[in-house]
Design goal:
314 residues, mainly alpha, 14 helices, 82% helix, 0% strand, EamA_dom, transmembrane helix, transmembrane, EamA domain-containing protein, EmrE-like
């Protein structure tokens, strides 16, 4: 998961670099990403995946979740790329990192899972942190600069939160599938959706930009490789570890992104923004530690039950 955080931070930096320095269109970025994801995942599946064991045995319901995962992950990427054209990469990643709190709300609504005091406190802390990071114009924050006061920036923050919602839905689908589907099949489903939609939306201008903007093309090819690594690591880690420790490690994406933005793009966050970032990270850590404790209790109870059964058999 740490590899996923580093790859995702690098991906975010490269997309932001391509959009701000080389004026590379979002649809062209997504098209390149889909080609790289599709090529690398197909090669992996052809060489390493047993068709009979991992493909043919998948049920119809599981295929529906594979498609659902590809669609939600694709929508998340569309939102991320669009948001990175409008707001700084550190703020975009911070809003995207609200996935754990959004997942808690979704689980309570759709799965009737109980919500404890830690969940409520984390939700409130995360919400306040998001407000401090986004600093919406209708609240008239004094620290917000004139360049950040446009409606496009507010739209960018809203799109980043939409990306977090889609990512939460994708994570739920991935956890449901577990190890029944090879993790690269999930990456391939994402590539198929992105490629189909980007081809439908891309016009002649986007294809001309691929030929005429070589620096931007090079940056986005690197971004596509990092994106494939991040997606593969995310799918693989969600098959082997529960959401708590995974989200705890992935929260490292936030400091990585702010370091990239400060060093290479000159994006210096305000003290109020950093306070919001700290609140979002604290909320993620609180939810993650809660799930870690739940995992430990589950393992202890499972060990106790297995011990009792072994004594009963003897």
């Amino acid at each position: 998961m740490l590899c996923c955080a580093l790859a995702h931070s690098t991906l975010t930096f490269l997309i932001r670099l391509g959009a701000t320095r080389f004026a590379f269109p979002a649809l062209s970025t997504i098209l390149i990403r889909s080609v790289i994801d599709g090529t690398l995942s197909s090669l992996y599946i052809i060489k390493y995946v047993d068709y009979e064991e991992n493909i043919r045995s998948v049920t119809g319901r599981q295929w529906l979740f594979v498609v659902f995962r590809g669609v939600t992950a694709g929508c998340s990427i569309f939102c991320q790329v669009t948001a990175l054209k409008l707001i700084s990469m550190g703020n975009a990643v911070t809003l995207l990192s609200t996935c754990p709190t959004i997942s808690t709300v979704m689980a309570a609504i759709f799965l009737s899972e109980p919500v404890g005091s830690i969940d409520v406190l984390s939700l409130i802390t995360s919400f306040v942190g998001v407000v401090l990071v986004a600093q919406p114009s209708f609240l008239h924050f004094p620290s917000r600069s004139d360049s950040e006061a446009s409606k496009d920036v507010d739209i960018g923050y809203g799109i980043a939160l939409a990306a977090a919602w889609f990512t939460s839905s994708m994570s739920v689908a991935t956890r449901f599938l577990g190890r029944s589907v090879n993790f690269m099949v999930n990456v391939l489903s994402l590539a198929v959706f992105l490629f189909t939609i980007s081809l439908m939306l891309c016009g002649p201008r986007e294809f001309d930009n691929l030929k005429n903007n070589i620096p931007g093309l090079s940056v986005n090819i690197l971004a596509g490789i990092c994106g494939c690594i991040a997606q593969s690591c995310l799918s693989k880690s969600l098959q082997f570890c529960r959401a708590g420790p995974a989200l705890l490690v992935r929260s490292m994406t936030i400091p990585f992104s702010y370091c990239y933005g400060l060093i290479f793009l000159g994006e210096k966050p305000s003290l109020l923004t950093l306070s919001g970032v700290a609140m979002v990270v604290a909320a993620v850590i609180a939810l993650s530690l809660k799930e870690l404790r739940m995992d430990e209790r589950f393992m202890q109870s499972s060990a106790f039950v297995s011990t009792k059964e072994s004594y009963a058999d003897s």
